[in-house]
Design goal:
34 strands, zinc ion binding, phosphoprotein, single chain, Vacuolar protein sorting-associated protein 8 homolog
Length: 1265
């Protein structure tokens, strides 16, 4: 039937079922294909290597629509192409076996009931096989025949079974026949439910019939290339089937259809609601949605392909980027394409093209075995198992001898040259296919079977490689290892250990017993590294050095090969430290075979703490393995200095100036190693490899520095030079040793101790090398170059004296020395570039000094910002020290006078001191010159000369000039200067401050002159400018000083202070009694007329202030009395406590006080326990006279504190007033005759009472105040 005729037929669609509105004209496929797309999103290629999901095989209902084998020519399907080999070990992925029970019953049925040959097969919970005589045989999972559906009579009418399909719950079976009929069977009882004869045009065979996930919908594809939707209904007990044409063969024959099936766990997936259907024609692929309305989602043209190739389709849900979505795999020819269907958050459906898979074979069948693995069959009847993410071919099985059943007679198109239906049926990771007399099954092997399959073939290496891929989770098509990764690794590791034991036994048994030793060695060299590798991968060194090594000890060759094979693993640090027996055998084996270099290489990569350190050290000494020795001392004992001392002593023996050039090669190597070792220690690196632990780095650096700057070695002889180690290293290789120090100094920034070591080492280098005939000029030149580079650093903190710096500059700029000319020139340029102006002016100063141009040096100081303040000392030394001619001093004097303004700007105080000493007669001229400038610093210059202690005697005019400068540049300092200086004239100074409108200063001068009223009038002028705070401040100050005048002449002030009476009177209350203030206010005519309301607040505030101060005074008095009582009680307790002297003799004359019987000398005991004769203490002037008594202090204690600075002594003296109480109160004057017969309460009568009285008077004075 043509597409035009089909378009005239109304579609019978249940509106309630599909929930779609009624339309007048139903859509046709042409209108559907011509509909505009909702979205024009192009295909996007994605990298599918990210796919990783568990087994999510959907419930498969694929049909093998196979007919008899007597039709069609298959020669065009036998084209063979070369296959690419893959070196990755995957083992045997599929297990191929024959279902003997089903095969036998099919043959029996053909013989007994004339069932015919098998033509179609499908699998679900049961296996259904269609025959050429129209029967459908249903078998259970035990291969027992459950049902035989149909009869041979029906077969004669309908023809052979060409297609089968089972629904998702395994209750219905659809059978399609060669003559176009379709039957539906109940699999529970074998009852025929429907016979459909009008679903498609008559005379066309059913190629495919397939249930969808909707139990009421199925799809059929006939040999005319048309596709129909079958809708099953049951109304009033009657079962019906309605057919709708989805695609007409007149538009291009569809030869393959595939509905999307979802597993139970994916039934709620957002894509399943659309009931997707993929159709493959000879020109393109179509994906349509059957629900909720018919819609074409995507069309994909093949492009140029072989017309003889048959398209194939397969759906699978796959995890892509953490989301599970369906992927459609389709192929035609040798390329498999993948289309990802997904729904985004907005509800838009996207169909995205994924990375395609290319094979070198024509594909005739395609199926998913799980979400990552595809099974395809090519035209040469080879089954390829392919991992889709990696596109690796896992296995190839040849089925050419099976004699698969083909069919092409039912497909009408002759352009394809024939057709093959799907030869493979997939369900639950099983692949079913059949030949003429047998049914075959291929299943995925689990991981253990795949490994054992290789072991049976004695492919141990492949078995280990495959097992390791299982262990790491990189294997493909894995079955039986899903779950916790840790459990998976443990399970596989046990299996690998088992394989290793078998491999070791096989290597021992298969070893040739006779023949050359090289053959045996080669045998074990091929075997042993495999054992070591996999033991290390499994982190089972206990197994390697235990059972495996014990097994290899049975063969001496195997033992030697094993020990030799450990070296590369130790060097790569894959083996930290073997066990003690293995290590002992390893060292013995290497020593016997003269492989000491290997011993050293291995030792420096091992954990020494697990070895016999004494044995290892002895071996290193005997064989001169210095690298190993250093490593043992460093790692085993944290000793970094002993190896340095030993090597340095060995080098020192031969490093003298006479034979240094004739050192042996071994000594040169040792010396170079020593330099590298020192460099590593100072850089925090371990020698010869690794790093020093972070907590030991500062300690090691300090130890190395202390080692270098040692004055003498541990076993020094009498004629040994000082700093022997630095001497040795300098004689060995001066330049390299200095390079080591230079690299070390690069890391010194904020480390104060390291900078101190740096300065110390530089000082030692200068002391050792400069003016030492043992070192050549070239070596000294290396030192100078080294120093210049250090000084050229921007953050240089190195100090060298000026004389030495001049020597360095002289060496660098010497034109007579041609040695290392380029390097010296480069260093000099570095000094200039890095040091900038500083080093430039130093070099100029060096040149000027050579030519005695001392006045030019002043310019150098002024241009150097780092040494600008040193110019004052330089000028003072030139002008005051002998050794310079009068002309040189005069030139410096003139230059200084010329730059006096710059000097004042640099430091006014030092400039004033310099002028006062050397330019006394030019002071007025200098100050006059400064008055024309506009800089504040110039105003400080005369002030430094005149204030606070004048540096020279001067007249009042100089002081008045200073006042003028202060008025210009620092008005706020004028009053302070006027208060402290007395050498200015009042009238002239008043005119100066008036000229600059400094009213406060003028008021001060008028007050000083005695004109109080004039001063107040000046402040009244300020009042006009509303500067009330200044008036109030000054008024209060005047009232404080002239309160009597206020009492007598208050009318003058009260008339002025009305606007701020409150503030003034509150301030006056601190100096004038409150009754006097109130009395004067009431006598004032302004407030005496009954206007007390204006001052009511003032009076109440005064009363509140009085109450507050009275309460404060009472509280303070109470606290002081309580404090006094507490202090006196503790004072009595302190002075009443007995003292015990430390010795029985005087700490000055060292004589025992008991032996001095002449006279009644007094002794004094201090709280510190020291005892003195009173006369001895008086001779040492340790008593402080005051108020008729002495305040004693301990001579010994004060002597021990004599090293403190004067400031600290001053502070202690200041504290003495508060501390003397405790010292004196605990001091006793004892009579020698009474000795130790002292009543505990008697000494209170001899306590120095003046301290207590002084304290009481002080407290009383404070209380009264």
């Amino acid at each position: 039937m043509s597409l035009h005729k089909l378009s005239q037929l109304p579609f019978q669609i249940d509106d309630k079922e599909f929930d779609i509105p009624q339309v007048d004209t139903p859509p046709t496929l042409e209108s559907i294909l011509n509909e505009p797309e909702d979205e024009d999103e192009p295909f996007v290629l994605e990298d599918t290597c990210l796919l990783n999901t568990e087994n999510m095989d959907t419930h498969s209902c694929e049909t093998s629509s196979l007919a008899s084998s007597d039709s069609g020519d298959r020669t065009h399907l036998k084209r063979k192409r070369p296959m690419e080999t893959n070196s990755t070990v995957h083992g045997s992925v599929l297990r191929h076996s024959i279902l003997k029970g089903i095969s036998a019953q099919i043959v029996s049925a053909a013989d007994k009931v004339d069932a015919g040959l098998p033509t179609a097969i499908t699998v679900s919970n049961v296996i259904a096989v269609g025959t050429s005589h129209g029967l459908a045989l249903v078998f259970d999972h035990n291969q027992a025949l459950r049902l035989c559906l149909g009869t041979t009579a029906t077969g004669a009418e309908y023809g052979a079974v060409s297609a089968l399909s089972i629904n998702h719950d395994c209750t219905r079976l659809l059978c399609g026949f060669a003559k176009g009929q379709i039957t539906m069977w109940d699999l529970a009882n074998g009852k025929l439910l429907r016979t459909i004869t009008d679903a498609h045009p008559p005379g066309t065979a059913i190629l495919h019939v397939k249930f969808t996930d909707n139990p009421t919908l199925a799809i059929c594809n006939d040999s005319g290339g048309s596709v129909f939707e079958l809708s099953f209904r049951r109304v009033m007990g009657m079962r019906t089937c309605e057919s709708r044409c989805l695609f007409s063969g007149s538009k291009g024959e569809v030869c393959c259809v595939e509905p999307l099936h979802a597993a139970l766990e994916l039934k709620d997936h957002p894509i399943t609601q659309y009931c997707l259907l993929a159709m493959a024609s000879l020109t393109k692929i179509l994906v349509i949605g059957l629900k909720p309305s018919l819609k074409v989602w995507m069309t994909f043209p093949y492009g140029k392909t072989d017309p003889a190739s048959v398209p194939q389709l397969a759906w699978q849900f796959v995890a892509v980027q953490k989301a599970v979505n369906p992927i459609l795999a389709f192929c035609r020819g040798d390329t498999v394409h993948f289309l990802l269907v997904k729904k985004d958050e907005s509800g838009t459906i996207h169909v995205i093209k994924q990375r395609q898979l290319s094979l070198n074979s024509d594909l005739i069948s395609l199926a998913w075995i799980n979400s990552r693995t595809l099974v395809v069959m090519d035209s040469s009847e080879k089954v390829h198992v392919v991992d889709r993410p990696s596109q690796e071919e896992l296995e190839v099985l040849d089925l050419s001898e099976v004699q698969l059943v083909y069919n092409s007679s039912h497909f009408k198109s002759l352009a394809t040259g024939g057709n093959v239906s799907q030869a493979l049926v997939i369900s639950f990771q099983m692949i079913l296919f059949f030949s003429q007399q047998s049914v075959h099954i291929m299943t995925l092997r689990n991981w253990r079977e795949r490994v054992d399959h290789l072991l049976k073939q004695e492919k141990f290496l492949e078995a280990l490689s495959l097992a390791w891929s299982f262990h790491e989770g990189t294997a493909k098509a894995v079955l039986g290892l899903f779950g916790d990764p840790a459990k998976r690794k443990g399970l596989v590791a046990d299996k690998m250990v088992e394989i290793l034991f078998q491999y070791v036994d096989r290597s021992i048994k298969k070893c040739p017993e006779q023949g050359k030793i090289q053959v045996m060695e080669q045998h074990f060299q091929d075997m042993v590294p495999v054992m070591v590798d996999y033991c290390l991968l499994l982190q089972r060194t206990d197994l390697l050095f235990g059972q495996i090594y014990s097994r290899l000890l049975e063969n001496s060759v195997a033992k030697g090969v094993f020990l030799e094979s450990l070296e590369p693993y130790i060097l790569s640090e894959r083996i930290g430290c073997p066990t003690a027996p293995v290590m002992r055998d390893l060292l013995a084996y290497f020593q016997e075979n003269g492989m000491m270099e290997s011993v050293e290489n291995c030792l420096v990569h091992m954990d020494i703490t697990n070895l016999d350190i004494q044995q290892v050290v002895q071996m290193c000494w005997e064989n001169q393995l210095y690298d190993a020795m250093i490593y043992v001392f460093n790692s085993g004992m944290n000793d970094y200095i002993t190896p340095m001392e030993v090597q340095c002593n060995c080098v020192c023996v031969c490093c003298s100036t006479s034979i240094c050039s004739s050192l042996a090669d071994e000594q040169v190597v040792m010396g170079n190693k020593l330099l590298v070792y020192i460099s590593c220690c100072l850089a925090g690196r371990a020698y010869p490899i690794g790093d020093i632990p972070e907590d030991l780095v500062p300690l090691v650096k300090n130890q190395v520095f202390e080692f270098l700057i040692r004055l003498h070695s541990a076993e020094a002889s009498q004629d040994e030079e000082v700093y022997p180690y630095i001497h040795t290293l300098l004689h060995f290789d001066t330049r390299e040793f200095l390079n080591v120090l230079a690299l070390t100094f690069e890391d010194f920034k904020n480390d104060k101790q390291a900078l101190e070591y740096q300065q110390r080492i530089v000082d030692i280098l200068l002391k050792v090398m400069v003016d030492n005939p043992d070192f050549t000029p070239s070596q000294v030149g290396c030192l100078f170059t080294f120093l210049a580079r250090q000084l050229a650093k921007p953050d240089n903190s190195l100090f060298v004296n000026r004389k030495l710096f001049d020597q360095v500059l002289e060496y660098l700029s010497s034109p007579d020395d041609d040695s290392r000319h380029t390097e010296r020139q480069q260093v000099l340029l570095e000094l200039l570039q890095v040091g900038g102006v500083h080093f430039y002016v130093i070099i100029c100063e060096f040149m000027y000094e050579k030519k005695h141009l001392y006045d030019k040096i002043i310019d150098c100081y002024l241009k150097d910002p780092l040494r600008k303040e040193e110019i004052f000392n330089y000028i003072h030394n030139i002008l005051s020290m002998p050794g310079y001619s009068a002309e040189e001093k005069r030139s410096v004097w003139d230059k200084t006078l010329l730059h006096v303004q710059e000097l004042v700007t640099t430091d006014p105080a030092k400039s004033a001191e310099l002028v006062a000493v050397h330019f006394t007669n030019e002071v007025h001229q200098i100050i006059s010159n400064l008055q024309v400038t506009d800089s504040f610093s110039f105003s400080l210059f005369p002030r430094e000369i005149l204030h606070p202690q004048p540096l020279l005697r001067s007249g009042p005019d100089l002081h008045e000039q200073l006042v003028g400068l202060l008025c210009r540049f620092s008005p706020q300092q004028v009053i302070d200067f006027l208060k402290t200086s007395q050498d200015y004239r009042l009238e002239e100074t008043i005119q100066i401050v008036q000229q600059h409108q400094l009213h406060e200063a003028k008021a001060f001068l008028l007050e000083k002159k005695g004109d109080i009223q004039g001063a107040f009038q000046v402040l009244l002028q300020v009042r006009e400018n509303r500067n009330y705070s200044l008036i109030v401040q000054y008024t209060v100050a005047v009232l404080a000083q002239f309160s009597a005048m206020f009492i007598t002449e208050s009318s003058l002030f009260l008339s002025v202070l009305k606007e701020f009476t409150m503030q003034v009177l509150n301030s006056m209350s601190s100096f004038i009694a409150l009754p006097a203030i109130i009395h004067r206010i009431l006598q004032d005519p302004v407030y005496g007329t009954g206007k007390l309301a204006e001052i009511q607040g003032l009076i109440l505030g005064m009363l509140d202030t009085f109450n507050y101060e009275q309460t404060l005074l009472e509280t303070t008095t109470s606290l002081l009395n309580h404090d006094l009582h507490w202090s006196l009680s503790h004072l009595r307790a302190a002075v009443s406590r007995g003292l015990h002297p430390r010795q029985d003799h005087c700490n000055i004359c060292l004589q025992q006080y008991r032996r001095r019987q002449e006279g009644e000398d007094e002794i004094i005991i201090f709280s510190c326990g020291h005892l003195y004769h009173c006369q001895c203490l008086q001779r040492k002037e340790q008593g402080v006279a005051g108020l008729g008594h002495h305040s004693w202090s301990c001579y010994k204690c004060t002597s021990s504190q004599g090293r403190r600075s004067t400031d600290q002594n001053t502070m202690e003296t200041g504290r003495g007033r508060s501390a003397s109480l405790a010292q004196v109160s605990q001091m006793y004057k004892l009579n020698v005759e009474k000795k130790w017969e002292i009543d505990p309460f008697f000494p209170s009568a001899q306590i120095t009472v003046y301290v207590r009285n002084a304290l009481i008077k002080h407290i009383q004075r404070t209380t009264v105040t």
